[in-house]
Structures are given as C-alpha cells and as structure tokens.
Write a structure and sequence with these properties.
It is a single chain. It contains nine helices and 17 strands. A hairpin with a 6-residue loop joins β15 and β16. The radius of gyration is 21 Å and the shape is globular. The N terminus is likely disordered.
Amino acid sequence: MIYINYVSNNIKGLKMSETIKVGIIGTGFGQKVQIPGFLNVDEYELVAVAGQNYAKTIQVSEKFGIPKAYKSWSELINDPTIDLVSIVTPVYYHYEMVMETIATGKDVLCEKPMAIDEQQAYEMWDFLEKEDRVGMINHEFRQLPEWRFFRDFVAEGNLGEEFEVNIVYSTYTRLPFTGRLWNWWSSSLMGGGIWGALGSHFIDFIRWVFGEFQGITGRLVTKVHSRPDPITHQPRPVTSDDTFHAVFQLTSGVEGTINGSVVRHGKGGTIIEAYGSEASIKIDWDRTVWTAKKDQPWQKIKIPDKYALRPIKEGENYLQPAFEVLISQLREGIKKRISPSPSFEDGYEVQKVLDALRYSHETGQWVVIN
C-alpha cells in the first residue's frame, strides 16, 4: 500500500493556548489506562474513540464523555480536527494505522511492540521522519519509580564495571484454568505472544539503562498448545509463544538473560538484577529495590520521594500514573516538534532484537544484531 501525504487542517506546531485534540483507537487496554490518562493530563482534549465493536465503542464514549464514537479506525484517523492519534490495538494493525495517521498529517502514539517485524518498524519510523511528525512508543514502564531509580543507580557508576543483567518474568495469566479463549494473541502471524508483549518492555529497559544489543540467542516455547475458539468452543491451535528464554550480549560487553512465561503458577511478577565489580542491584517480585556489596546481605532501599508517582486512586490500573508521565513528555515533544524517547527509532531498535531472537529460535544460531 502506498501512503501519500495531503495537506490537512493540522498545523505543524501548536499555539501555547491550544489543546492537543486526541483520538484513541482501541477500547480494551485503551479504556483501562489511556482514556483516563489523557482525561487526567492538562492540555489534552479527548475528542474521539474507535474500536472493533461499535456498540462497545458507543458505551465507552458515553462512559467517559468522549464526543465522537467512530465505526472504523480509518474514519477516526481522517477526522481533520484531531492532532494526535493513540493506537492501542493488536500488533497486526499497527503498521497500517500508523502509516495512515502520518499520511493525514497527525502525530502518533503507538502501543508496543511497534510492529510485526523489523521491516514494518523501519518504514514507520522512516515515514514519520520524512513527514516531520512526532511519534512515541508506549513503553510506560520506564516511568515506574523502581525502574527510574535502578537506571540512575547504574548511570551514577554504583555498579563499578558492569558485568551482567538478568530479568525473570512469571505469571499465571494464560494457564488453562483462567479460561482464556483463542484470539489474536494466540497467533504468531498476528503478532501474539509474550516475547513481543513483555519482551519488548525488557529490551527497551536494557537499552535505556545499559546500551545497545550486539547479539542474542534463545528459544520461544509454546506450553499451552490450544485454546477454545470463541465461537465454536472447539480447541484451536496456538502458534505464539507463552514462554521465552534469551541469552544476549551488549556492545559494551555486558552479558545477560531474559526469561519469561505467562503459564507459571503463582502470582509472580518481574525480577531484574544487575551485577558489577563494586555492587549489585535488583528489583524484586514486589517492586522493592535491593542492593548488595561484597559478602554483605542484600539491603532493602527506600526509593527517594523524587521518584514517586502520584498516588493510585481506587479502581485505577497501576500503570495509569506512569502513562500520564509519558504523555506529559509527549505533550512537550509535540509543542517543540521533537519525538521524545521512547521514540519510533527506539521502537525500531527494540524490533530488531525481537526479530533476532525469533530467527535464533528458527535456526539455533547466535544472531548478531547490526
């Protein structure tokens, strides 16, 4: 498909008195975090929403007081009053939606992972740059207090020489007892799987803290081989991964592992550990931070108040305050006409690592990342 830009009503920059008019595509995660987030941040005006199910889209628009409910995502993107489109959809929609958004002269926030593959991600980034639009990838985990403290601890040189970093993610959410039905997440061709969904966050974190990947190897595993079809309720094959194992090296020489699964019993969570010549640091399952030196026991660290997000209100998703920080940074980027990090370039670099592990899984090789 060829995308041709045309002159829209959107100006290249916004006057300081103007609000940024937002349209959101997606009524799943979109209504859990993004819609309330945009409604809660100054200088944004949420004017439109679109989803796969029009009846649900209308319900969401009425629930949140959003003026326009569109039957199709293309109608929303082509609304000339919208300045920013936020895409909160399955991965296989991202490329076409992003390209059409840019072609209509709008800025864009895209859910992670950025695309189905590296080629799509590169074309999305390249088109954004050529059309002088602002784009950002929704890696809101960067704004979590423990992640920011961890990054600063490393950046300040507390580890000494950096040796290794290891990440383990475990949860029960796709074990058979949860009753999950087959959907796009069960299809590798549609961009489903835990490696893209959570691995993308962990790759982004490692790049953000330690630098670029040099190479990677590993396995993508499917433990639950079928799920009930939502219509027939008959078993339908699962082709996406629910477990992954990765071993990597960075250009700095730092080595590490990333291991994750959504089919492990127990509440679980994320453990992130880094080791150096002078100290160690880890984020534990419960999001607490610990450090250690020499042969001393691990010591729990109180994260300084400067890293705190606003308190989570009753009924809110725990990611909403972090998302609000991310879109506040996006707002300033739109004003200055600069794409903040995590940018489309960051999304492309993450996609290269995602694809490299997939190739390693297919070939059994160590894959060098250019």
